[in-house]
TrEMBL record:
<dbReference type="InterPro" id="IPR051225">
    <property type="entry name" value="NAD(P)_epim/dehydratase"/>
</dbReference>
<comment type="function">
    <text>Catalyzes the NAD(+)-dependent oxidation of L-threonine to 2-amino-3-ketobutyrate, mediating L-threonine catabolism.</text>
</comment>
<dbReference type="Pfam" id="PF01370">
    <property type="entry name" value="Epimerase"/>
</dbReference>
<dbReference type="GO" id="GO:0006567">
    <property type="term" value="P:L-threonine catabolic process"/>
</dbReference>
<dbReference type="InterPro" id="IPR001509">
    <property type="entry name" value="Epimerase_deHydtase"/>
</dbReference>
<dbReference type="InterPro" id="IPR036291">
    <property type="entry name" value="NAD(P)-bd_dom_sf"/>
</dbReference>
<comment type="pathway">
    <text>Amino-acid degradation; L-threonine degradation via oxydo-reductase pathway; glycine from L-threonine: step 1/2.</text>
</comment>
<dbReference type="GO" id="GO:0008743">
    <property type="term" value="F:L-threonine 3-dehydrogenase activity"/>
</dbReference>
<comment type="similarity">
    <text>Belongs to the NAD(P)-dependent epimerase/dehydratase family.</text>
</comment>
<protein>
    <recommendedName>
        <fullName>L-threonine 3-dehydrogenase, mitochondrial</fullName>
        <ecNumber>1.1.1.103</ecNumber>
    </recommendedName>
</protein>
<feature type="domain" description="NAD-dependent epimerase/dehydratase">
    <location>
        <begin position="31"/>
        <end position="266"/>
    </location>
</feature>
Amino acid sequence: MLLHKTTRTFSRLNLARQLSTSTSSHRPPRVLVTGSLGQLGSTMVSALRSRFGSENVIASDIKKPTVDQRNAGPFVFADVLNYRSLEQITVDYGIDWVVHFSAVLSAAGERNPTLGLSVNVNGFQNVLELAKNHRLRLLSPSTMGAFGPTTPKDATPDLTIMRPNTIYGISKVHMELMGEYYTEKYGVDFRSLRYPGIISADTPPGGGTTDYAIDIFHGALKHNSYTCFLKAETRLPMAYIDDCIRGTMQLLEAPEHSLSQRVYNVHACDFTPAELAEEIRHQHSESFTINYQPDSRQVIADTWPRTMADDAARSDWGWNPVIGTPEMTRIMLEKLRPMYQNTALDHDVSAAEPAAINTESAAPAAAVLAH
Ligand SMILES: NC(=O)C1=CN([C@@H]2O[C@H](COP(=O)(O)OP(=O)(O)OC[C@H]3O[C@@H](n4cnc5c(N)ncnc54)[C@H](O)[C@@H]3O)[C@@H](O)[C@H]2O)C=CC1
Ligand SMILES: CC(=O)[C@H](N)C(=O)O
C-alpha cells in the first residue's frame, strides 16, 4: 500500500515535471544564465544563443559587461544572493531554464570562505527555490573539487567517498545533494556535471587551482618561461572549453528519461605541469622553461582526482570529448599568439616576473588585450 502510494506520488511528480519544464513546441526555451561574465559563462551564452536565438538567452552577472557583451543580446544585473530580483527576471522574461554559473572557485574560496559559502550555498539555494517555484529546468555545474583527500584518485567513479576539505568542495557537495533532494521531493529538473579544470583562451580564469594550465600559455608566449604554482608531477583531469560547453549543451537538452542520475563526472584529458610544458616546448619553443614554486593551491590539488571515470555521461547523454592535450595546446597557442605578437621573447626573466602571471590579476590584463 505504501509502495503503491509512493509510486503514485512519483508518477505525479514526473508528469508535473515533464509538463512544466518542457517548453511549448512553438518556441525555444528562454534561458537565464547567471555568472555569465565568468570564464565559462560568456562561451555558454554564445552557444545557447546560436541554438535558441539571442533574444531567448538572458545573460546576467554582478559585473559590468563590455560594450560587445551588452550588444550581443539581453543582459541584466542579477545578484544570486537576492531571490526577489531573480524572481523578477524570471517573470519579466518568461524564463524556462536556468544555467547557474555564479560561483566562487577553489583558491578564491579559501581566500574568502565567507564569500565562498555565501555565493555557493545561499546563491544556489535561491536558484533552486526559483526552479521549484517557477517550474524551471536547472543546470548547475559541480566540479572534481567535490572529491577530497580520501576519494580514490584514479578513474574516480561517480559514486564514491566525498569528503572534500575546501569551502568550494564542501559547497559543491551540498549543491549536488540539495539538487538531488529537490528533484526527488519537488520534481525539480536539476542536472549537473562534475567538470575537470576547464581551459580556454577567450576569458580569464576566475581563481581556481587549475588556472596554471591557462596562465602557462601566457607565460610561454610573453616570456618563454613560466613559474608554476603546482609541482611538476601534479596530474589533474582537464577539458578544453569547446568540449565542456558542447557537453553542457548535451546534458541540458537531454530527454529527462535518459538520465539515470542527476550528477555526472566528465573527463576529457589529463596531464601534469611537466607534461604540458613538454608539449609547449614541442609546439612553440624548445627553449621554453618552467620553474616550480608550489603554493597553497598545491594542497588543494593534492586532494583531487588524477583521472575521473565518466562512463555514465557517455552512455546516458553522449558525452564525447574530442580535444586531447596536443590539440588543446595547439588551439591555445594559436588563439593567444596575436596578443603577444609584438612582445619580443625574453629569455632573461627575473623570478618575480613570471610569478606575476600566476596571480589572478594578470589574467584580466590579458583579457583586456584580447578585446
Ligand atoms: N572554470 C573551471 O575550470 C571550472 C568551473 N566549474 C564551475 O563552472 C561554473 C562557472 O565557473 P567559471 O566561469 O570558471 O567561474 P568564474 O569565477 O570565472 O565566474 C563566476 C562568475 O560568477 C559571478 N558571481 C560571483 N558572485 C555572484 C553573485 N553574488 N551573483 C551573481 N553572480 C556572481 C562572478 O562575477 C563571475 O562572473 C562554476 O559553477 C564553477 O564551479 C567547475 C569546474 C571547473
Ligand atoms: C576544477 C575547478 O573546479 C576549478 N577550475 C578550480 O580549480 O577551482
